[in-house]
Design a protein that fits this description.
By secondary structure, the chain is of the alpha/beta class. Helices cover 39% and strands 24% of the residues. Strands 3-2-1-4-5-7-6 form a seven-stranded mixed beta sheet, with helices on both faces. The protein is globular, with a radius of gyration of 17 Å. It starts with a helix and ends in a 5-residue tail after the last strand. The N terminus is likely disordered.
């Protein structure tokens, strides 16, 4: 097989995977390598995103759409023994992967929850920081999801939204701003890159 044929097969495979992911709405558990790889870590490293959101020891953190725990694990380390992380995902196989990692690494300050965003499963006024990392585009009811996260944050709490290309569910900055304002959030800071960005949104103390 010549080089052009090999490249054609690779391109076709990538397109097919993208279509599966796009129309499955959420990333299937067997596509975890597309979430955890050197490219993603280079442009949106997990530990870097945790620091960017201002996570500190003792905080209560929500990792919404946690998948296999790319953000959950460094967040658990950052909050320490006095803090807590709630890892929420709708897919049981993603949570199973995360729970195996937690057991293997002896991490005890993480609780997992199988639920969809917008289902009303989150406790009110509970979290200091919430993460939506390449998740928002996969949520069918985006306004409802952001309203639920808003209610779950304490006054002054931060929602950190990260989007990156070529995620098939990528949400542009303008769309996230519109949804965030409708839910009651105020934009605190935008970290913008060439193929990714992070938008930190705050629930004001008077809310």
């Amino acid at each position: 097989m010549n080089l052009l044929a090999i490249l054609g097969v690779l391109l076709g495979t990538i397109v097919m995977i993208g279509l599966v992911w796009r129309y499955a709405y959420f990333c299937p558990s067997w596509l975890v390598p597309l979430l955890e790889n050197p490219y993603v870590e280079t442009i949106a490293g997990a530990a870097f995103l945790v620091r960017r959101a201002g996570v500190r020891p003792g905080m209560q953190v929500l990792d919404a759409g946690c998948g296999p725990g790319r953000i959950t694990l460094p967040a658990a380390e950052a909050v320490g023994a006095s803090g807590r992380v709630l890892a929420l995902d709708i897919q049981p196989r993603m949570l199973e992967k995360l729970e195996r990692r937690l057991r293997d690494q002896g991490i005890s300050n993480v609780t997992t929850l199988r639920a969809g965003l917008g289902d009303g499963a989150l406790p009110p006024n509970e979290f200091d920081v919430a993460f939506l990392v390449t998740v928002l585009g996969e949520v069918p009811d985006k306004p409802g999801a952001l309203r639920e996260i808003y209610r779950s944050l304490r006054a002054g709490g931060v929602l950190s939204v990260t989007e990156l290309l070529p995620d098939p569910h990528y949400q542009p900055i303008r769309r996230v701003r519109e949804l965030a304002r409708s839910a009651g959030f105020r934009e605190q800071r935008l970290f913008s890159g060439v193929v990714s960005y992070t938008m930190n949104l705050v629930k004001d103390a008077e809310s």
